[in-house]
Structures are given as structure tokens and as C-alpha cells.
Specification:
Blueprint (H helix, E strand, L loop, with lengths): L7 H10 L3 H10 L18 E5 L33 E9 L2 E9 L10 E5 L6 H8 L1 H8 L2 E5 L24 H16 L7 E6 L1 H12 L6 E5 L10 H10 L21 E6 L8 H13 L11 E5 L7 E7 L5 E8 L6 E2 L8 E2 L5 H9 L36
Parallel strand pairs: 4-5, 4-6, 6-7, 7-8, 8-11, 12-13
Antiparallel strand pairs: 1-2, 2-3, 3-5, 9-10, 10-11
Helix pairs in contact: 2-7
């Protein structure tokens, strides 16, 4: 216990209070109470960003990955094969006086042309290597021609490597971890000539909750988002309320003012995965995420259109219920997958990674399929609000303030 931390005794009491049972398990996976002491990080007065190469030959991916379990569909390559080798890079990113580690997958098809990108946010007790192995997103990226970035939450920030999705300072556009991840995204867009209309974010557990935060606060950056075993925006503002929301899925959704007064230009399309046997994050949280997106879309009273529902029974894997939601024009805007029998694990994942279950439908393939339906229309996402909750500027290229030397 840190005797100089005035909340240290409260942290210890909170940890011991929830040491057992489902909510204690939730704390282990999803929330690190030791981060509460710095619950309101301030927006940096002056931000300097840069990314540096730190490629390690030992990090190079195996050219022939192990075969997928029989329950998961094979990821098939799109287009003609390339003569280049894919790259699995270790890199560092400087932001607000701190250095952040991340991994980057560059597919073999890349030769400087503009490709789409996915930002992948790992869960608690995971790291980028583990998350990439379990989700097999690199294999999907190789097949479909995506760059994939994996920011890392270090133990120096959270002993359990949890993203601090529940802290107020990490739920606004211009501060905290949300701002850092968005800045890294913009840096990679500039560095790799990424197609900035096709940038996506996905996450699992605490990473899924942080992906929600990014989708709500940065609709001008991310064309769509995937949330696996996560929670809705604003259901918690400190560790105790976070544990309660995870345990019962009944936290109150609190969206930023700009998302409710009409000044937010778009609601980010979402695909949501959750297991109905998840004892770490209650499956009701998946329903809340769908409700949250409805509110962002301006549909407070009910669905704009009744969802199309598909139920699939399988002989070798988990059955699931899939709901597809459409807007008033009949365009699909979100999907919800409830996997029957799945716990707190990535559906259809590979056992090389932690918190995966190969018996479920292949979430990675479905996420990529969903993403390929959406791209930003730059003329439609110019942000005109001056609401401090979002910090949008009226006439600036959204990448302009993050341009810096790359070396």
C-alpha cells in the first residue's frame, strides 16, 4: 500500500471486498482499482508525437501459421499473392511526454499504396502479441489487405494491463488514453498512407469498452467499431461503478452533450459480440451497447426499424443469435451477436491466445466483413461543434495538429 496515496486504503478495501465471486472475477479481468488515484488525467497543454522503429527480428511472424481449429472457417486470401513478406513490427510512440509501445502488422501486399487499417485494443492480462495470436486478426489482415495496429497498455499504468475506460478523463476527446490512441491512429495514417476513410477500431473486454469510448468521441476518425464482451459508454466513472455495471449490465448510459444535441455528425456503425455465459461482463451489457448506438443515432423511443434476427444451430460449435439493425433507408448500421454457451472469451479464437474459445462463430472474420461495408465520407464528417465535451474544430483537417517528424 502506498502511504502517500490518500485513496490507498479505499483501494485495498475495494479489492478485498470483491475478492471472490463473479464481480471479483470481473475485477481481475476488466478493472484495475489501483488506477483510481489518477482518475482524472488532464489534457496535455502541448502535445508532441512521434513514432520510432524498434523492429526485432525475433518478432517477425511465422510465414505459415498453424491451422485453425475445425470449428473456425479458414481465412481465404483476396486478390493475387504478393512477393513481399508481411511485417510484424515493434514500435514506440511518443505522446504528451510519455512513450507508448505498440505492435504493427503490415501485410505483404503493401507497397506504399493506401490500405485500410484496424486498431486492436487488447483486454486485461493480455498484450498485443497475445491478442494477435488469439484473434488471428493478422491472418485476416493478410488475406484482406489491412494494416493492423495494437497499442499496448503497460503494467506501469495498470498492473493488470487494463485500459482505463471508466475514468472521466478517458471518456473525452482531448485527454487521457482516448486522446493518445486517436493520436497514434492519426500518426499511422500519415506514416503509412492509410486510407483515412477506412480506419476501424476493435477491442475485447476492457479494450472493447475503450473502443466504445473512441467510437463515441472520435466519429470523424473511425468508420466503424467492433466491441467484444465490452460495455456501453458512460456507465461508470470510477472503479466501484465499473464493477457494478460489469456485474449486472444495468449502468446508466451517459453520452456527451454533443452527441445528444445534434452537433455530432454521425453515429459510428457497431458490431457487438457477447457470450451469454459470460460471468465477467454480464451479457446485458451487449444489449446496452446496442441501445447506446440507437441513442447516438437519434432514436430514443425505439428501433428505427425492427432488426432482422437470425438463429443458427450448429453441430460442432455454439449456436448463436444474430440481429441486424437498419436505418430509416434500410441500410445496415449495426449487428449484435449473442453466442450461446460462450464465456468471457473471443468467439472463434485460436488457443494460441488467452481468453479465446474456438467453438464459437469466427468473430474476426465477421468483424472484417462488417467493416468492409463502411467508409467515411470526408465532406460529411467535418466537425463544426465547439462543445468542449468533444473539442471539435470547425475547419481544420482532423490530422493536421498531429503531423510530426517520423524517424
Amino acid at each position: 500500500m502506498n502511504i502517500f496515496d490518500p485513496l490507498a486504503s479505499a483501494h485495498a478495501a475495494l479489492s478485498s471486498l470483491f475478492a471472490g465471486g463473479p464481480i471479483g472475477l470481473a475485477a481481475q479481468f476488466f478493472v484495475d482499482p489501483q488506477t483510481v488515484a489518477s482518475a482524472n488525467p488532464q489534457a496535455p497543454a502541448q502535445v508532441a508525437t512521434n513514432a520510432t522503429n524498434a523492429t526485432d527480428a525475433s518478432d517477425a511472424p511465422a510465414m505459415t501459421p498453424p491451422p485453425l481449429p475445425s470449428a473456425a472457417p479458414l481465412i481465404k486470401r483476396h486478390g493475387s499473392p504478393s512477393t513481399n513478406d508481411p511485417q510484424w513490427l515493434s514500435r514506440h510512440f511518443g505522446y504528451a511526454g510519455q512513450t507508448h509501445r505498440f505492435k504493427l502488422y503490415v501485410p505483404s501486399v503493401y507497397q506504399g499504396q493506401s490500405l485500410p487499417m484496424i486498431v486492436m485494443l487488447h483486454g486485461a492480462q493480455q498484450d498485443p502479441e497475445d491478442f494477435a495470436a488469439g484473434t488471428q486478426m493478422n491472418e485476416a489482415a493478410e488475406a484482406h489487405g489491412y494494416i493492423v495496429a495494437y497499442p499496448e497498455q503497460p503494467e506501469s499504468v495498470s498492473l493488470l494491463r487494463c485500459w482505463n475506460w471508466f475514468r472521466p478523463g478517458d471518456q473525452v476527446r482531448e485527454s487521457g488514453e482516448v486522446s493518445m490512441i486517436a493520436a497514434l491512429t492519426r500518426e499511422l495514417i500519415a506514416m503509412y498512407n492509410v486510407d483515412d476513410t477506412r480506419v476501424y477500431v476493435a477491442g475485447m473486454s476492457a479494450g472493447g469498452a475503450m473502443a466504445v469510448n473512441l467510437a463515441v468521441t472520435h466519429p470523424d476518425v473511425y468508420a466503424a467499431a467492433a466491441i467484444h464482451s465490452g460495455v456501453a459508454f458512460g456507465v461508470a466513472d470510477e472503479a466501484f461503478s465499473a464493477l457494478c455495471a460489469m456485474n449486472d449490465g444495468m449502468g446508466k448510459i451517459r453520452l456527451p452533450t454533443g452527441s445528444l444535441d445534434g452537433s455530432q455528425s454521425r453515429a459510428v456503425p457497431l458490431i457487438v459480440f457477447h457470450g451469454d455465459a459470460d460471468e465477467t461482463v454480464h451479457p446485458r451489457n451487449g444489449d446496452q451497447i446496442v441501445t447506446m448506438r440507437r441513442l447516438l443515432q437519434g432514436d430514443a423511443g425505439g428501433m428505427l426499424q425492427l432488426p432482422a434476427t437470425y438463429v443458427k444451430e450448429t453441430e460442432t460449435g455454439y449456436a448463436y443469435t444474430r440481429r441486424v439493425f437498419h436505418d430509416e433507408q434500410g441500410v445496415p448500421v449495426s449487428e449484435q451477436w449473442l453466442v450461446h454457451g460462450l464465456g468471457h472469451a473471443w468467439s472463434g479464437g485460436h488457443p494460441r491466445g488467452t481468453y479465446t474459445d474456438s467453438s464459437g462463430p469466427h468473430a474476426t472474420c465477421e468483424i472484417v466483413r462488417f467493416f468492409e461495408q463502411f467508409a467515411l465520407k470526408r465532406e460529411a464528417v467535418e466537425c463544426t461543434s465547439t462543445n468542449p465535451s468533444f473539442g471539435f474544430s470547425s475547419s481544420r483537417d482532423p490530422r493536421q495538429r498531429w503531423v510530426s517528424a517520423i524517424f
